[in-house]
Amino acid sequence: MGEFKGGFASFLVIVFFLSFNIFLLVHGVLPIVSDHGENISEIQTYIVHVLKPEGSNFLDAEDLENCHKSFLPNTTLDTGEPRMLFSYKEAISGFAARLTPEEVRDMEKMDGFLHANPSRTLHLQTTYTHDFLNLSTLFGVWSTSNSFYGEGIIIGVLDTGIHMPHPSFDDTGMPPRPAGWNASCYLRTPCNGKVIVAQSFNIANSTTPPSDIDQGYGTHVAGIAAGNFVDNAEVLDQALGRAAGTVPKAFISVYKVCFISIGCETTGVLADIDKAIQDGVHILQMSFGL
């Protein structure tokens, strides 16, 4: 009888142990480990900074990406998703990849590794006013600047995209676009002599058009930065006057990197900065933060 009790007690302990672990697993307390030993619950996106490889200025995009992939434990996760998200060429020396903290610690032992940070979501913010910047056609910066209202300047706007029919983006009076400029425009309403580039970077769907019909924030900040002169502007019959951006004759190059569903992921932001530098913009406008 004593042996039966002992065996029954052991049976209860085993059942309790299995039940408790199943409870922890379901509620996300225990890590889920893949076939390769990856802690799936800890996989996140990291931005990894590395030393520039020798001769990197002469490497094409594919060779540079292969160099960056050499830091990874393997090129795909068990789900089949690629680890590498972006291989940066201009903005930083490094890449963005899906990794666990343990894999990052192993990477720290590799020659050429500098540091890695988890990708973060930035939040939209706003800009200052013309009065604060002392902009005026009579006595302010506009009247004393060597550049006539920013003519010839290309401003790269990283935001939620742009709504082309907005009157601030009319190209009346704009100078000819820069010679040799051939960056792409993926808007349904074509670019013009004011908005000369419109592209989109979205990890989930790279073909998302860079229009701004969902939020309007990118249109707002692009207009603040470089909106053309708009006569008889008003808001609900108030503040009637002539509206303009900070440099109304500058060109606008749009890069949609902020989305309602995912916010503004720093991996995509860096990819946009990288592309804008390659395109040849002079100034970057980014109105988001932590």
Notes on the protein architecture:
- This protein has 290 residues and is an alpha/beta fold.
- The chain folds into two domains: 40-119, 2-Layer Sandwich (Alpha-Beta Plaits); 123-289, Rossmann fold.
- The protein has six helices and 13 strands.
- The strands form four sheets. A four-stranded antiparallel β-sheet has the order 2-3-1-4, sandwiched between helices. The chain has a four-stranded parallel β-sheet with strand order 7-10-6-12, sandwiched between helices.
- The model is unreliable at 1-5 and 8-33 (pLDDT under 50).
CATH superfamily of the largest domain, by name, is Peptidase S8/S53 domain
Find the count of extended strands (DSSP E, 2+ residues). Answer: 13
CATH architecture of the largest domain: 3-Layer(aba) Sandwich
Helix content bin: 10-25%
User: How much strand content do the residues show?
Assistant: 15-25%
| Main pleated-sheet profile | 4 strands, antiparallel
Tell me the CATH topology of the largest domain: Rossmann fold
Total of helices? 6
Based on secondary structure, the structural category is alpha/beta
- On the 0 to 100 scale, the average pLDDT is 79
**Distance between termini?**
67 Å
Shape: elongated
For the record, the count of structural domains works out to 2
Helix-strand topology string:
HEHEEHEEHEEHEEEEHEE
